[in-house]
Amino acid sequence: MRLDGGAGVGVVALDLDDAAQVAAADAFVKGSADGTPFHRPAWIKAIERGTGNRAYMLAAVASSGQIAGLLPLTHMKSRLFGEALVSSGFAVDGGILAGDPAIHSALACAAEGLARDRRIGSVELRGGSSPGEPWCVHEGSHLGFVRPIAPDDEAELLAVPRKHRAELRKALANPALRAEVGRDQRLVQAHYDVYAQSVRNLGTPVFPKRLFREVLAAFGEDADILIVYEGDRPVSGVLTLYHQGRVMPFWGGGVADARRLRSNELMYYRLMGHGRTRGMRIFDFGRSKTGSGQAAWKKSFGFDPVPLAYHSWSATGERRDINPNSAHYQRRVEMWKKLPLPIANLIGPLISRGLG
């Protein structure tokens, strides 16, 4: 596919099996101030391998052959939730990566064309600036939480508001709790066991185990896992991405005892320290739904919420509903919470691969 973008720029679909094209796209993302891990070919290729949802990478290419803009897309497909091209699938960010408004517009038009060609009803952009009409802007549903990493552990502790700091001190004083960071199979399994229990308790289907393995493999040293143990029992765990000085905890959770143990508090505190040793400067706590307990928890940890905006285009004016807080899904969420964990882990990945 090639569309004229004006000013000598064309839009093409990159071959994600071509190492040179992938390297050029990755270099463009890493060289862009607004680039995120979710713009990288590594992300959408890992999603494709881990869930079966097809990856596309649209690139605006100048007459010189240099990339001037990117739009990574995942074709989300589900009988329950419908279809959409999403930038980026299973991510909290993405959207069009281009500094020139003309290039931005060309990539938006190319995404619309790809959706029409593939008979996909809509396109969703999780971040970036609005492409303008006929795209819709969606604001108020999610909040972002970001702050600098403090220069040392004591300063990090003092950056946590007093009430929550007291809870963190209890975890720090518990000799049974310890944290371990790495990428080996033992930690991968511990993370999955903890995460699966956490999301089941929230009423959400767990993602396929292969998804986590593929993301770790694709990102190499730019991703790892931190587990908090009570003795030998994993009680909290998080898979984290590292990008351009940012620590980005992504898939995290705790077992039912995590609240009593304050192990989630300890997990993120230790992750801040680990990020500091890696030379990271920013702790990006990701997004949470407005009004959720998770958003309130992050705020109490010393992070100020910032409203996020998403954008969508639809050939019919309809947009798929994947919000577990919507009235349409509330009964199913409550039923899911009551499922035995082995059953939830068996059927959850079959459902969740279409949710991203």
- The CATH architecture category of the largest domain equals 3-Layer(aba) Sandwich
Largest sheet: 13 strands, mixed
Order of helices and strands: EEHHEEEHEEHHEHHEEEHHEHEHH
What proportion of the residues is helical, as a percent range? Answer: 25-40%
CATH superfamily of the largest domain: Gcn5-related N-acetyltransferase (GNAT)
- The figure for the number of domains is 2
Q: Give average pLDDT, whole number.
A: 90
| Rg, Cα atoms, Å | 20 Å
Global structural class: alpha+beta
CATH-defined topology of the largest domain: Aminopeptidase
- What is the overall silhouette? globular
Number of distinct helices: 12
Distance between the termini: 25 Å
Unreliable stretches: 1-6
Please list the strands of the largest sheet in the order they lie side by side. 1-2-3-4-5-6-13-7-12-11-10-9-8
Classify the beta-strand content into a percent band.
25-35%
CATH class of the largest domain: Alpha Beta
Number of strands: 13
Protein name: FemAB family PEP-CTERM system-associated protein
Domain BioF2-like acetyltransferase: 162-299
Your description of this structure?
This protein has 12 helices and 13 strands. β4 and β5 (82-87) form a beta hairpin. The protein is globular and about 65 Å long. It has helices spanning 19-30, 41-51, 101-117, 153-158, 162-172, 185-202, 209-219, 258-261, 263-277, 293-300, 330-337, 341-352, and strands spanning 2-4, 10-13, 55-61, 67-78, 82-87, 122-125, 136-148, 177-182, 223-230, 233-243, 246-254, 282-289, 305-314. It has 2 domains: 2-142 and 309-352, Aminopeptidase (3-Layer(aba) Sandwich); 143-305, 3-Layer(aba) Sandwich (Aminopeptidase). It has 356 residues and is an alpha+beta fold. The protein has a 13-stranded mixed beta sheet with strand order 1-2-3-4-5-6-13-7-12-11-10-9-8, with helices on both faces.
